Amino acid sequence: MTITLSIRDEKCAMALAQLCKRFQWVDCLKYADSCDGKEHQEFHAAKIHLAIFDLEESLADAGFVPR
Q1: What is the helix (H) or strand (E) element at residue 61, kind and residue range?
Q2: C-alpha count within 13 angstroms, C-beta hemisphere, residue 4
């Protein structure tokens, strides 16, 4: 799937790349839907984790790679 994302400037793009870099598994679990139990929460967290990874890769492809 391709989604076009407009970011207002390079500083914002780098800030988003920094956020992706720092987003950890525990953050994914924190924001995952837990209404249907732990197994569902972990599945949802895995999808969040993959989406963050995809965003990070796209930002890197555009030249936004934090140290």
Answers
A1: helix 38-61
A2: 1
**pLDDT tens per residue across all 67 residues of the chain:** 999 999 999 999 999 999 999 999 999 999 998 888 999 999 999 999 999 999 999 999 999 999 8
Cβ(3)–Cβ(52) below 8 Å: no
- Angle, vertex CA 25, rays to CA 27 and CA 1, nearest 5: 95
Residue 37 to residue 18: CA distance in whole angstroms: 31
Sequence ranges of the domains in the chain: 24-67
Residue 63: count of CB within 10 angstroms of its CB: 10
Residue 23's Cβ-count burial label (10 Å; 0-12, 13-18, 19+) is middle
